[in-house]
């Protein structure tokens, strides 16, 4: 069930024994998760399996009752999303969290704007030129479809918005990029370009991506490995080549349930 | 299948829509400036030579607009960030009462004042100016804390504080104007000119406008103001301390009310209880006419300047033409309706994308 690798340093992110209880509900019952450097790791599970709680734990939005998170061999304890960001974990939420009336460069740098050199910088002046150039370079490196750096993000297509949000995560993330259902609202062509963006983050930036998705074709198209959660426990981690869609669905729903129903 | 088939047709459409949305922004900015220029041209033609179009009238229009412009600068920041302050007229009145009372009390005894002798004028002016700014700032902080800490919408919260503040000012003064303002403050400051050329209220309004422009367009503080109005949750997740930022904006608005109160007392030599009740709505009207969105996230100081000049230009033109100046209110109302309609069309163009 677990991966064969035994050297702990081989993983970019190691999650061990994470538990989280909300009142009587145990959302996570001791979950382990290993994410290798430069892999796209899909996280699957039915509603209530604990996916979103696990993502929130990694994003620092939820503090676990037990368990540990190691990044590059160092243990971390996140008490706020800021902690997770400082540790190099960036999250693309389903709502994208973009400012629609601002252009892409301001969105990429929101809250982390480059200051002008010298006194003006200390007075809070933003180096717009540096911001625009860095944003342009970064978007090009991801082969992004966002071309007009002066246009408001709100006027862009769903795919372009997604590309801006993903590019922001890739710009600041140094340990792990997490994406929560990034293709849920997209059409076929736009989904393909987001999947391409995910591959580029892996291949060009060498960053691991944790992809939360319901969409099995997406998972088979882009993931290197897959982990399935069910009822707060990990029930499967395997290279994508060693699983089938049926196998994944059985793992998500519980094979017994399927057999019982048929 | 249908999804794939419709995609090539949609792509250019989205591009056109974006151009239209951005075009609408530039169009409305330019339209409102053209409207102002048109008004000035029309009044210049319709009035006798050397009346409307003269340096002295230009100065008087700017003087009339100066106080509204200062309040409108603060309102621009608030509206862009998704806030709103209806209490600014009341806060201005309250601050003006403080300015007039402190100055009158400290400048000299009543007997000395009767002889226009003010032995402690410097101390009195310094204390009154400091007091006016501090009181305005204080009410602004209260509005900000209410906006951030309670879930009361700012429309209601500041409507309520405005009533409270104006009520307290009236109770304090028995509803009477505060009269005993030292004359030199009026002659030296309110009616005085920098280098004998530019009236002080215009100088102050110009400085406030310039600082607001730079702050909004060039700094991190300005960018964060836009971001909060565009998507508060996104700004919060980006690590911006949105509560602190919002309190700062309301506090700044309050301090600007204090500044306007100082100018008002200087110009008119009295703290008037009744003459500022419409200031809040006038400032919001000027800012929205200038292209700032009521829905947040969008706006510029350049537009606000134009929006704040329109009422003063109309008033001056109507007075010179011997038209009832109340028509100014009618005209501003009509322009406001059009401006908000354009704003909504813009928002619709954007959310459709």
From TrEMBL, chain A:
Domain of life assignment: Bacteria
The keyword Nucleus is assigned to this record: no
Chain ranges of the ABC transporter domain: 13-256
SMART domains named among the record's database cross-references: AAA
Keyword tags: ATP-binding, Nucleotide-binding, Sugar transport, Transport
Database matches in PANTHER family: CARBOHYDRATE TRANSPORT ATP-BINDING PROTEIN MG119-RELATED, SUGAR ABC TRANSPORTER ATP-BINDING PROTEIN
Protein's name in the database: ABC-type sugar transport system ATPase subunit
Organism annotation: Thermocatellispora tengchongensis
TrEMBL record, chain B:
Organism domain of life: Bacteria
Transmembrane feature ranges: 27-49, 61-81, 88-109, 121-142, 154-173, 193-216, 247-268, 280-296, 303-320, 326-342
GO cellular component: plasma membrane
Pfam (any one): BPD_transp_2
Keyword Membrane: yes
Chief location: membrane
Keyword Zinc-finger on entry: no
Leader sequence segment: none
Topological type in the membrane: Multi-pass membrane protein
Single GO MF annotation: transmembrane transporter activity
Keywords attached to this entry: Cell membrane, Membrane, Transmembrane, Transmembrane helix
Subcellular location: Cell membrane
Family matches, as PANTHER family: ABC TRANSPORTER PERMEASE PROTEIN YPHD-RELATED-RELATED, RIBOSE IMPORT PERMEASE PROTEIN RBSC
Protein name (database record): Ribose transport system permease protein
């Amino acid at each position: 069930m677990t991966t064969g690798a035994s050297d702990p340093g081989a993983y970019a992110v190691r999650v061990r024994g994470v538990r989280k209880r909300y009142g009587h509900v145990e959302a996570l019952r001791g979950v382990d998760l290993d994410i290798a450097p430069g892999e796209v790791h899909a996280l699957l599970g039915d509603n209530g399996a604990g996916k979103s709680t696990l993502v929130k734990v990694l994003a620092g939005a939820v503090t676990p009752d037990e368990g540990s998170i190691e990044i590059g061999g160092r243990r971390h304890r996140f008490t706020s999303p800021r902690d997770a960001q400082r540790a190099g974990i960036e999250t693309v939420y389903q709502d994208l969290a973009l400012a629609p009336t601002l252009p892409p460069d301001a969105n990429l740098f929101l809250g982390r704007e480059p200051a002008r050199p010298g006194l003006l910088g200390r007075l809070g002046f933003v180096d717009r030129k540096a911001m625009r150039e860095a944003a342009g370079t970064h978007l090009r490196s991801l082969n992004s479809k966002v071309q007009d750096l002066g246009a408001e993000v709100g006027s862009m297509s769903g795919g372009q918005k997604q590309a801006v949000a993903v590019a922001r995560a890739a710009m600041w993330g140094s340990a792990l990029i997490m994406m929560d259902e990034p293709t849920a609202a997209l059409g076929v062509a736009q989904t393909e370009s987001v999947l391409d963006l995910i591959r580029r983050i892996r291949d060009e930036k060498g960053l691991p991506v944790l992809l939360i998705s319901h969409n099995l074709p997406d998972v088979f198209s882009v993931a290197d490995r897959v982990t399935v959660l069910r009822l707060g426990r990990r029930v499967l981690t395997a290279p994508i080549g060693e699983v089938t869609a049926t196998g994944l669905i059985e793992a998500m729903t519980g094979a017994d349930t399927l057999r019982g129903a048929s | 299948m249908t999804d794939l088939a419709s995609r090539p047709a949609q792509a250019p459409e989205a591009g056109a829509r974006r151009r239209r949305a951005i075009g609408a922004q530039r169009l409305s900015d330019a339209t409102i400036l053209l409207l102002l220029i048109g008004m000035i041209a029309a009044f210049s033609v319709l009035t006798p030579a050397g009346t409307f179009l003269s340096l002295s009238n230009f100065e008087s229009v700017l003087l009339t607009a100066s106080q509204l412009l200062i309040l409108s600068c603060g309102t621009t920041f608030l509206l862009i960030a998704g806030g709103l302050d209806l209490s600014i007229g009341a806060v201005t009145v309250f601050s003006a009462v403080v300015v007039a009372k402190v100055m009158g009390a400290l400048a000299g005894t009543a007997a000395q004042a009767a002889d226009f002798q003010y032995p402690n004028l410097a101390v009195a002016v310094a204390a009154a100016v400091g007091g006016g700014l501090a009181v305005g700032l204080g009410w602004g902080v209260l509005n900000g804390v209410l906006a951030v800490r309670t879930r009361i919408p700012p429309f209601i919260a500041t409507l309520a504080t405005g009533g409270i503040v104006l009520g307290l000012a009236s109770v304090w003064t028995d509803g009477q104007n505060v009269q005993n303002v030292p004359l030199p403050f009026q002659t030296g400051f309110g009616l005085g000119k920098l280098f004998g050329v530019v009236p002080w209220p215009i100088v102050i309004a110009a400085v406030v406008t310039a600082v607001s422009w730079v702050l909004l367009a060039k700094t991190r503080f300005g960018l964060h103001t836009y971001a909060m109005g565009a998507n508060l949750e996104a700004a919060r997740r980006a690590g911006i301390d949105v509560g602190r930022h919002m309190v700062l904006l309301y506090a700044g608005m309050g301090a600007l009310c204090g500044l306007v109160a100082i100018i008002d007392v200087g110009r008119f030599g009295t703290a008037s209880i009744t003459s500022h009740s419409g200031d809040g709505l006038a400032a919001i009207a000027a800012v929205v006419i200038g292209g700032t969105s009521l829905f947040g996230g969008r706006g510029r100081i350049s537009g606000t300047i134009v929006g704040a000049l329109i009422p003063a230009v109309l008033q001056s033109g109507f007075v010179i033409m011997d038209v009832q100046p109340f028509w100014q209110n009618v005209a501003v109302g009509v322009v406001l309706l059009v401006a908000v309609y354009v704003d909504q069309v813009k928002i619709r163009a954007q959310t459709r994308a």
